[in-house]
Specification:
Rossmann fold; homodimer; alpha/beta; 455 residues; 41% helix; 3 domains
């Protein structure tokens, strides 16, 4: 039997309710995005005002939409939503994404509408994502209910990262950055006011989803604490789960309440639950992006002893500071390795941990240091800082770093930062499966996130 | 009488010792960079092997270089440095930038060479920047001793930021990013092993420098604790000074020692000294860049009550969390303002602090919120989050934000993050004098840095 949430991600047909020819109306944008996402099922248009829509028949209501149709996407004003759900129930469509805002987040009247919608959905056994949300993005299946045009928001391609987000802005920004960095997404869901489907059932689904290798969650509040811990624990047994929990402070708790009408709760309780379930908690938007990249591209190290390799001494010192601050270790070079490197490298390289290859560094220096350093049982992983302005680095650096890391069989993370030549190196390293971060501190924190998960 | 360090920044003539036709040799790169930096004084080449160098006469030693010459830039092997300093002393040139590495950072032999160089410099009263450094970048004066070619490392134009850095990699990376963000630099100095001129005398100089409006320091260790506190206190009376101190942990302390042969010392002592001198301490490479941008473009607010304006609810909640965590306040909207905005804005905007203008936000919404919100005595500054994928924002947003901020006369910082359309908005906002940060957390921290300095 398929998972009860499966039709959200692999519907045989989708009805978009509220399609419109006006370019600023969400229904038309969503229709366009679904068409452009390569959805292979049947798209149905619903709007009583049009006989047809962009070459397809347009139905006055969901009651008239022919088979197949497993999912309705609602982009109609909030007051119309309960009626549309009635039609949907009568038609036997059991899954809805309610994009529309104007519910509990908009005051008492909206809250009453939300209760009405909830009652209709429950009565008909309709599973709901939303309301007040962007809905679902699943590029491998051609699903894209995001109402932001592709010209405005870049979409990542298919890949191993699943994202669950109470915030639409958080999700869309993350997607935009992932696209830019060449990372891929399996399923991304923004459930906004979350009257039904939230992180817990979605985690149960993602635990079994073969496309998903890593899960990242933006959370203001949890849908169901007990169920979440059980679902997250099940998920973390097979794949890493990262979370950023906002609404930690009292002021932010109030803000979260007005944003998605949810109670943020005491942070200590959340923290304990995350720990119990094996969820890796991070502290910011950037840390969630960084952690997701690290887990997508690298496996967790067997221990916390880090070798730092740099071609900028000061960046190396900054890395040591943050590595030590996040609870990892920077053991001295074993004497045999130090002796070998002293004879192998020029005398002005600083042989130690960090190993400073200086502005004279070459591609081969980095490869040697990574391969020989990580071959030593003294180290579990490497943090490699490669600054591009030095003359000895070529276009082959990314490939050499990645070959050396593969030969050593231990995880590495990179830091590269700068204007002109860095983006090129970052793209190449990502293509080689090496995650790159724009400061030594963020590279150290990504490594700490990896270490938090047992290999 | 000019300041004793003045000839480093406004020399009437510069001699580059160790010019070379080999493209990988530092002397030639430095010559080229000085020529391209628009230096208006006389450039002299020194190398006994060449009769002339790129059309200019080339002298066998500093003893033969004719007037005017106030500064020697040494790019010769370390063992030759004491002899070159002898020549320089005999010729009466009282300022040297020693680029060459291979001194105390390279082991006991190098340490002996460094002591020899120090002795010669002291004997002849030569002021020294270096050795083992990039030296000086002062674009307004056409000074550029950085040995990284412009094709590899972008240079920022003239502007208000001075940078003092023990690390060359830290400085060069910062310059590269500042260039990319359109920020300008007055003087940047990397002094490496620092046998003479360090942060204290440079701060004394920068305190009086009319071009410098903000000072940013990367520090592994201090040259002279007592003198530093006095110089920094004098400087912070007239302009903000930011510092990132690395080598905080014991492991990093050891790393700093091998990097620039300096003792990093106990961090609590540094922290107390910074506080005493009014120096704003930040915790990472990115925070130094962010803080510098904030101070260059905005003045400190009169208090710590922050209005948060967003078009992405979740980003707003994340901002509230970090604003509260860094010790600022997020006071509720005064009732009169709430009433006004409820009637002015659509019902689905969330009227509160944060004010959530949602995906329906327009340029005018942002302008109204900033101008009317900051006009209220309840707020000292605003944190504005503008995500670009929404349809209602146009190319005029940056201008409208900046007009509104000017009308209110209170500082604002922005957050914008995303792939396709964001870099354009960031450049426009920077051009309008509004600093932009790539996450709500970093915007909050930049605001906290601003607040730390009394207006």
């Amino acid at each position: 039997m398929p998972h009860p949430l499966e039709p959200f991600f692999t519907p045989r047909g989708i009805a978009v309710v509220g399609v419109s020819e006006k370019p600023e109306k969400l229904g038309g944008i969503i229709w366009e995005n679904l068409a452009r996402a390569g959805y292979r099922g049947v798209l149905h248009a619903v709007n009583p005002r049009y006989p047809s829509f962009r070459g397809a028949p347009c139905y006055p209501s969901l009651r008239e939409v022919p088979d197949p149709v497993d999912l309705a996407v609602l982009a109609v004003p909030a007051p119309s939503v309960p009626g549309v759900l009635q039609d949907q129930g009568a038609r036997g469509i059991r899954h809805a994404v309610i994009i529309s805002g104007g519910f509990a987040e908009a005051g008492p009247e909206g809250a009453a509408l939300q209760r009405a919608a909830e009652a209709v959905a429950r009565e008909h056994g309709i599973r709901v994502v939303g309301p007040n949300c962007l809905g679902i993005y699943a590029p491998g299946n051609g699903i894209d209910t995001l109402f932001l045009p592709r010209e405005r928001l870049e979409r990542p391609g298919p890949g191993g990262l699943a994202i669950l987000s109470q915030s639409g802005a958080f999700l869309s920004t993350l997607l935009d950055l992932l696209a830019q960095e060449g990372m891929g997404v399996s399923k991304a869901v923004n459930y906004g006011n979350r009257i039904d489907v939230g992180e817990s059932p979605l985690l149960e689904y993602l635990a079994e989803d073969p496309e998903t290798r890593v899960v990242a969650i933006y959370m203001e509040s949890v849908d169901d604490g007990r169920r979440f811990v059980a679902a997250a624990a099940r998920c973390t047994r097979v794949k890493p789960v990262l979370v950023v929990k906002v609404g930690k402070t009292e002021a932010a708790g109030r803000a979260a309440r007005s944003h998605t009408a949810a109670l943020a709760g005491r942070h200590a309780i959340y923290r304990a639950a995350f720990r119990k379930a094996g969820v890796v908690e991070v502290d910011s938007f950037e840390a969630l992006l960084d952690g997701a990249k690290a887990f997508l591209l690298q496996h967790p190290p067997r221990g916390k002893r880090i070798l730092i390799i740099t071609n900028g001494g000061g960046m190396g010192v900054a890395a040591v500071d943050r590595v030590a601050q996040v609870g990892l270790e920077v053991p001295d070079l074993p004497e045999a390795l130090a002796v070998r490197w002293r004879s192998r490298f020029p005398p002005f390289y600083t042989i130690g941990n960090p190993l400073d290859l200086t502005g004279n560094s070459t591609d081969e220096d980095f490869a040697t240091a990574i391969e020989e350093g990580l071959a030593d049982p003294a180290y579990d992983a490497a943090l490699v800082i490669a600054l591009t302005p030095v003359l000895g680095l070529s276009d082959r650096l990314a490939e050499r770093i990645s070959q050396a890391a593969r030969a050593a069989g231990k995880p590495i993370v990179c830091c590269s930062v700068g204007g002109r030549r860095t983006p090129h190196l970052v793209r190449r390293l990502h293509a080689e499966g090496i995650p790159v971060f724009p400061s030594p501190e963020r590279a150290a924190e990504a490594l700490a996130a990896l270490v938090k998960r047992k290999p």
